[in-house]
């Protein structure tokens, strides 16, 4: 199986080896802006932490500060750990060509 034929969609559509980003997973709720501000800040942080190589400053201060306005130190730590854990499992699934949720 090559990258063009993997079951993992690219952000923006089409086959590829990338999974959905946080915003794509929200569907219409994220696109319509009805997501609460704290949740949007957490999703922006998740997107930045997930896509580290997309920009010179992977997690800009404005993204971190927006999350810090809604979450205390413990909450930010929990968010970062959850983002990292999710990214770990996504990378394991992609590298082993294991579609998420297909076991069992």
Write a compact overview of the structure shown.
The chain is mainly alpha-helical and 104 residues long. It is 55% helix and 4% strand.
Secondary-structure topology with pairs:
Layout: E1 8-9, E2 15-16, H1 22-26, H2 28-32, H3 37-50, H4 61-70, H5 73-95
pLDDT < 50 runs, ≥5 residues: 1-20
Secondary-structure element string: EEHHHHH
The outline comes out as globular
**Radius of gyration based on Cα positions:** 15 Å
Structural class: mainly alpha
The total of beta strands comes to: 2
What portion of residues belong to β-strands?
under 5%
Straight-line distance between termini = 22 Å
Folded structure, characterized:
The chain has helices at residues 22-26, 28-32, 37-50, 61-70, 73-95; strands spanning 8-9, 15-16. The chain is mainly alpha-helical and 104 residues long. A hairpin with a 5-residue loop joins strand 1 and strand 2. The model is unreliable at 1-20 (pLDDT under 50).
Short key terms for the protein model shown above:
mainly alpha; two-stranded antiparallel ribbon; 2 strands; 4% strand
């Amino acid at each position: 199986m090559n990258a063009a034929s993997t079951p993992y969609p690219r952000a923006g559509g089409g086959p590829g080896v990338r999974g959905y980003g946080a915003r794509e997973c929200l569907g219409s709720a994220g696109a319509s802006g009805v997501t609460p501000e704290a949740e949007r800040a957490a999703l922006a942080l998740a997107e930045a932490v997930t896509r580290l190589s997309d920009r010179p400053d992977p997690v800009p201060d404005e993204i971190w500060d927006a999350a810090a306005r809604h979450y205390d130190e413990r909450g930010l730590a929990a968010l970062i750990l959850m983002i990292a854990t999710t990214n770990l499992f996504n990378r394991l699934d992609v590298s082993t060509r294991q579609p998420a949720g297909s076991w069992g």
